[in-house]
Amino acid sequence: MLFALIQIFEFITAAIATVFYKKYGGSFLKYFLVMLWVVVVMETVIWVLKRNGIILQNNFLYNVFTSLQYAFYFLLYYNMLRTATYKKWILGFLISFVVAVVINFVWIQPLTVTAAFHSITFSLGAILLIITIGLFLVEILNTEKVLYFTKYLMFWISMGLLIFYAGIIPFIISLNLLPAMMSGDGLTIVFFALNTLMYSCFAIGFIISQDYAG
Known about the structure:
Layout: H1 2-19, H2 30-51, H3 58-80, H4 84-108, H5 119-141, H6 153-174, H7 185-208
């Protein structure tokens, strides 16, 4: 039931982002809209297949997709930030993450149809993304944009991502020590709460923002 509600939040957010497309359509954020709809389509297809008795190994799909998501987020911040030094760091994060994913999928947590969830690279990506968001916030603090930061779409996107990934890291890391947590009700509730907060931030940003920049 909670996962179905998450899918509803995903659809509503993607729909709102589409309605307000003109606000950010001239920036790299237009690809953020594409990503939102890809999530909606992927989750819907998985749900339909399961409803029709077709069993899927979700971990394989999520291992690939979440890795691509991280790469996209690094590219997003690389394109949206203006500080040359920060852009170099983010590019370094992107390259390091891609290398780590390849190493992990080939030798540590092999990418197979029956693969386990890739907790190692997921956690690494989350940590690097949180640092990247920190660079974004520092850049805002060092400009006049800090006076009206709530009007920037990238601020709300950053808050949503920060809440989700900072909140989920402890649970993902603990999976290696406490595998039973993956199927626990506690993790499901936390996942639902974090997704709700993240997509709420996205939706608020699309509605009230007046500028896509950050």
